[in-house]
Amino acid sequence: MIVGVVTVLVGCAVQPQSAPVLGYQCDDGREFSVRISPSTETAEIEIARMRFGLLADPASGPGEKFSCSMLTLWRQGDMARVDMDGAPQFSHCRLKR
Prior knowledge:
Blueprint: H1 2-8, E1 21-26, E2 31-37, E3 42-47, E4 50-56, E5 64-68, E6 71-76, E7 79-84, E8 87-95
Antiparallel strand pairs: 1-2, 1-8, 2-3, 3-4, 4-5, 5-6, 6-7, 7-8
């Protein structure tokens, strides 16, 4: 499925950021990392050594939502998920401590 992410997200720009890296591990053992910059309302997600720039979606309701093209990061508390084209790709992911 990662191949589909590369194909679909060619237009997502990666923004250099100085925010700390947050690592997530999913119930199925897969991992990804995120940098969130509140000052610019952007996030950078790294999945399988590929990085994608995401923009905040202020109309997301509880928690946080960042997206670019067809990739969406949802965060609430210590939990996160990543969807591609509306379908969950990384689910039940918890912040690593």
